[in-house]
Design a protein that fits this description.
Blueprint: E1 2-5, H1 13-20, E2 32-35, H2 42-48, E3 52-55, H3 68-78, E4 88-91, E5 97-98, H4 102-112, E6 118-126, H5 130-152, E7 164-167, H6 168-172, H7 185-195, E8 200-211, H8 216-247, H9 251-263, H10 267-282, H11 288-294, H12 297-355
Parallel strand pairs: 1-2, 2-3, 6-8
Antiparallel strand pairs: 4-7, 5-8, 6-7
C-alpha cells in the first residue's frame, strides 16, 4: 500500500487508520507513506498512526523518473527493498476514506479473475460546495454505474488515480517500477494494459472516498493538469487504437480508441473549428474534391451532432436516472444544472490544456480538514 503525500499533516491519518481497520489479515500487506519533500508533520503523524514512512532522504541514490505523482510513487517503491515479493501494488491518496472491506474485495477479485493486470475500486466523493464540486461528484456516480460496471465485464474499466491495485509481476516488474510518464499516470497505465491485451477490473462494493475541488482556483489547476495528461495519452495511443480498430477490430481496440478521444474532450471541437476556419480562409483556393479529402463537411456535422447527443445523454438522461429516485425532481433538476455548468467549465479547461499541453508540470494541491 503506497500513499504519496506532500504537506498532508491534516489528513494523512485518515487512510492509515482505515487501512489499520481492514477486514483482511494485517500480515498480508504493508502500508507506506511517501512523504516526499514535506516540510510539515506528515511523516511524523504517519509514523504515529503505524505506517512505514519513506522520505526524499531515504535513498538518494535512487534515480528519479517521470514527473509528479508517478515519479513520487516510483521513488517510494524502489526504497522498499522487498517490493518484488508482493503480488499487488495499491495506490491510495493521502486524504481518502477507505472502506473496511477494501483489501478483502481486492483479494477476492484477484482470485476470481486469475490475477488481472489492475483492479479499481468504486470512487466516491466528499461533499463540498459550488457547481464544480457537485459536477465532479455527479460524474463519479454516473461513471461507476454507466461506465465502470459494463466495461469491467470486458476487462476495460478505467483507473482513477486512487483506490486501485496494479499487478506487480504483470505490470510493474516489466517496466521496473511505476513508470508511467504522463501527468495522468492512471490513464496511461490503464491504456497500456488494455492495448496490450490485459484486463482492468472494477469492484462496485468497496470504495475510497476522495476530496474533490470546491474552490475555482484549485479546480482550474487540478483539472488543467488532468486535461494535459489526457491529451498526452491521446498522442501516445490514438494512432495505435485507430489502426487496430480498422485492421484487427475487437472490443479492447475500440475501447482505447473511444477512451483516448473522450479523454481529450475538446479535440473533436478543435478539429471541427479548425476545418471550418480552413474552409473559410482557403476554401476558394481548392477544388471541392480536395476539400472533401481534407475534411468533408458532412463528417463535421456528424461529429457535432454526436457531441450534442452525448452531452444530452451524459448530463441529463443518465444523471436523471441515477439521482431522481434519491433526491426527487426538484433537487435532481438543480444538480443537473450544476452538472451542465461544470461541463461548460471543463470544456474551457480542456481547450486551454490542449493548446498548452507541453507544459509538463505537476501542480500540488493540499487538502483541508473535511470531516469524515
Amino acid at each position: 500500500m503506497l500513499i504519496p503525500a506532500m504537506e498532508e499533516e491534516n489528513v494523512i491519518h485518515i487512510p492509515i487508520d482505515d487501512l489499520n481497520r481492514q477486514k483482511y489479515p494485517s500480515k498480508l500487506f504493508k502500508t507506506y507513506v511517501i512523504a516526499d519533500k514535506c516540510h510539515d508533520r506528515t511523516a511524523e503523524i504517519a509514523r504515529m498512526h503505524g505506517a512505514n514512512v519513506v522520505t526524499e532522504r531515504t535513498d538518494q541514490n535512487i534515480k528519479r523518473h517521470g514527473v509528479g505523482k508517478s515519479n513520487t510513487i516510483d521513488y517510494g517503491l524502489h526504497c522498499i527493498k522487498d517490493w518484488h515479493s508482493f503480488d499487488y501494488l495499491v495506490i491510495i491518496d493521502s486524504d481518502n476514506d477507505v472502506s473496511d472491506n477494501f483489501l478483502q474485495r481486492m483479494n477476492d477479485y484477484a482470485i476470481e479473475f486469475n490475477d488481472p493486470e489492475a483492479i479499481q475500486s468504486s470512487l466516491e466523493s466528499k461533499h463540498g460546495h459550488g457547481f464544480i464540486n457537485h459536477g465532479l461528484n455527479m460524474s463519479f456516480i454516473r461513471s461507476n454505474f454507466f461506465q465502470q460496471l459494463p466495461e469491467s465485464k470486458h476487462g476495460c474499466a478505467s483507473l482513477l488515480g486512487t483506490g486501485f491495485a496494479s499487478n506487480i509481476k504483470k505490470v510493474i516488474e516489466p517496466i521496473d517500477g511505476f513508470r508511467f510518464h504522463t501527468l495522468t499516470e492512471d490513464a496511461y497505465e490503464e491504456l497500456s494494459i488494455i492495448s496490450s491485451g490485459g484486463d482492468v477490473k472494477f469492484i462496485p462494493d468497496c470504495y475510497v472516498v476522495n476530496e474533490n475541488y470546491s474552490r475555482f482556483g484549485q479546480a482550474s489547476k487540478g483539472l488543467t493538469r488532468w486535461s494535459r495528461g489526457a491529451f498526452q495519452c491521446f498522442l501516445y495511443f490514438f494512432n495505435w487504437a485507430l489502426s487496430h480498430a480498422i485492421i484487427n477490430p475487437n472490443y479492447k481496440s475500440f475501447h482505447v480508441l473511444c477512451r483516448t478521444s473522450t479523454l481529450s474532450k475538446m479535440t473533436q471541437l478543435i478539429i471541427i473549428w479548425g476545418a471550418w476556419a480552413w474552409n473559410y480562409i482557403f476554401g476558394v483556393a481548392f477544388s471541392s474534391n480536395i476539400q472533401i479529402l481534407i475534411y468533408p463537411s458532412w463528417f463535421q456535422y456528424i461529429m457535432l451532432l454526436a457531441s450534442l447527443v452525448m452531452t444530452f445523454n451524459i448530463v441529463i438522461v443518465e444523471n436523471w436516472y441515477l439521482l431522481k429516485p434519491k433526491y426527487g425532481c426538484v433537487k435532481t433538476t438543480l444538480l443537473i444544472i450544476n452538472a451542465y455548468f461544470f461541463q461548460m467549465f471543463y470544456n474551457i479547461i480542456n481547450l486551454y490544456a490542449i493548446v498548452t499541453f507541453w507544459e509538463n508540470k505537476w501542480i500540488v494541491s493540499t487538502h483541508g480538514k473535511e470531516a469524515r
